[in-house]
Please model this.
Amino acid sequence: MRGLLGNPFLVSGAAKGIGRGVAERLAAEGATLALLDRDGPALADLAEQLRAAGATVVPLPADVADESAVCDAVGRGAAALGGLRGVATSAGIFDPDDMKLAAELDLATFQRVLSVNLGGTFLAIKHALPYLLAGGGAVVTVASTAALRGHGYGAGYTASKGGVVALTRLLAFQYGEKGVRANCVCPGATDTPMTGGVYRDPAYAAAVSRGIPQRRVAAAAEIAAAICFLLSDDASYTNGQIIAVDGGATVV
Model:
């Protein structure tokens, strides 16, 4: 992909799942990486793996819901890499306590999910933007098909991902003329640690896949490939788009 080789990128939620897939794909494309995640040991393991393969990696342990930590981490990453060319915001949670009807959900759970999924997305972008504006670049956010049609559960999760979609559109409008593109990827059913391995149960995966035209669940690397394309110069005229990477599930 054009524009990735030798350029610096920030990935939040990089230690596991889709974020890890993005980090691995960017490294394979020759990018340099600032990797942010609250799981320090997992982040260190990933950094060691990528460095062993020849990548330049700056691990940045931080909680995306903590603005001072995010500000410090992004600054350190940009300083070490000589700036930033793009940011992928992959950090997110699904709280089991969110699996209730809206009238039964406590406000603390709702706000906790929003603080990570939406607030954390905003903070990573806010503190990366000064570096992106210096030389142009791209923002790719990660929402969910829940933001497009709702899944019938997870009021906090659904609201947070809908907010990510709206935020992305706003960024595309505000910063497009300043040389910064913003696009959003909405994954469908994807096998990641956040889904707790449920898609590795053949019966469950088969049941879910009946609603997916491709009749299977995604691997994290497949979502990561779409994100890396949007970060690359191959997507230079793609801005403000909300792209479902879901095997066709949202057309059903």
The domain at 8-244 is CATH 3.40.50.720 (Rossmann fold).
